[in-house]
Amino acid sequence: MSPVLPELPFALEEFGPDGTWTYTDGVLTGRAGARQDRFVPPGGDTLEPASDAPRLLGAVPEGDFRLTARVTVGFEAAFDAGVLYLHVGEREWAKLCLELSPERPTVCTVVTRGRSDDVNSFEVDGATCWLRLSRIGGAFAFHASADGEKWTFVRVFTLGTARERAAARAGFLVQSPTGEGCDVTFDHISYRSGGPADLRDGS
Questions:
Q1: Is position 6 within any domain?
Q2: Calpha distance 28→69 (Å, rounded)
Q3: Is 7 within a domain?
């Protein structure tokens, strides 16, 4: 696929396994292979992920921003997910997921600082949800929405040093940790400069 999406002011680069990424008429599609995930178990004996997952990322411009997409997941197995992904360093990254967790579609987040945490936020109806990743000064924020209009606050956090945060990469990830693979589409993709005015007022 082209490394440039017209909705984004930065080029994208593939990382991890082949995600068979395609982009047509405003719709980005990726496929996770069997048992592909990006997660460092918090209680494990290693700081390295047991496996990796297809990622499509680009270096975001300096300053605050909002990256938004409507995500639809072809759920087949527990923890299949479509993800907005933030990469600050090899051991500093975060995921905002629409995930089958493990039986109901759920908005979940992972923030990794050497090891990953794992938080379920709320269940959603169906296989589609809007997700938004923002940078606000020295912090990042996750929001989710049923309609792309009213946003529910999910999480605010920071990662890395000021220099690493300024050089962050953001984009898309697909995963299928326990299954044989799943297809994910991202549409209504948008990038806007400036963060949300208020994290908790639905804007």
A1: no
A2: 10
A3: no
